[in-house]
Amino acid sequence: MPMEEAPPIIDISAFYGKDDTAKQNLVEQVRSACTAFGFLQIVNHNVPDSLQEDILRQSEEFFDLPPETKEKYNKGGMTPRNIGGRHLGYERLRAQNFEKKTDGDLKEGYYFGTDLPLDHPYVVAGKLNFGPNKYPEEVPSPEEFKITVKAYFASMERLAHDILRILAATLYLDENFFNDFIDTPIATLRLLHYPPQPPTASPDERGIGAHTDFGGITILLQDMIGGLQVWNRDYDKWVDMEPRKGAFVVNLGNLMMRWTNDNYMSNLHRVINKTGKERYSVPFFFSGNPDYVVKCLPSCEGTNGAKYPPVSVEVWIAGRYADTYGSQDNKN
């Protein structure tokens, strides 16, 4: 039987309750979504609507700044000593180019990572996306911007922990199996702005080209404009991930697909903004502790064993960045 055309919307409130039957039903729904799509939307996740609205508003206020102001925070122009690594800060329009058919993807972004002091061993060692974040001073309320970003980041970390506990249950593992993985993680919050595509744009124009995510899980907040599409392999076509007020899109990354021996999907997705309106989204990429070694989960080996050798989170993620941005010297 073919799967449903679009990824499901799943109420995860049972995770926070005490009804074992409801929890098991939730686990089965999530397991099905992970094998069929690698994508789902979640509701009743305990993240306030007001915080979602605040982060989208702060994002819009930053991207409304003049280009020369935003460029002051360009992540390619910052040194590890003042930004905590070259992957934190502003990413200019068309910096990424996933499909290599145009001059680049029609979006701009701002990266925030796990906030650690300069003397933390991970920062001293130059591990990816660790260090003190840089916050723009030219937004209408710099302090409100900083408070909102920090609160949202912390909220996403908590939600990522909850989702991983649910995923552990779907994989017939103890709920706390991922505890070491979630400790001091490579975690990246991105504010993204997608300008509307001009009517005369090339048919190959993309807000972001077709790609899969690098890490463990992604938690995405999208505004109500739309434009996110997910590949449906059964129907052999792109399907719209319709925005739903208050919901988060959750998808699995390549690391999780590898970890599960390809039992779970890391699925292709893209953004095409033909609405004539500005689009904003806020993805949170959770990749785990950089020193954690990922090897095939015991419940996923099957009769043929592991398909992939063990790999550390840091080595895996750094390799995927290099694939996307080119050499280390060109990561602007």
From TrEMBL:
Record GO biological process: small molecule biosynthetic process
GO molecular function per UniProt: metal ion binding; oxidoreductase activity
Presence of keyword Ribosomal protein: no
Fe2OG dioxygenase domain location: 185-288
InterPro entries: DIOX_N, IPNS-like_FE2OG_OXY, IPNS-like_sf, Iron_ascorbate_oxido_reductase, Oxoglu/Fe-dep_dioxygenase_dom
Keywords in alphabetical order: Iron, Metal-binding, Oxidoreductase
Keyword Cell cycle: no
Pfam families registered for this protein in UniProt: 2OG-FeII_Oxy, DIOX_N
Family to which this protein belongs: Belongs to the iron/ascorbate-dependent oxidoreductase family.
Stated name of the protein: Fe2OG dioxygenase domain-containing protein
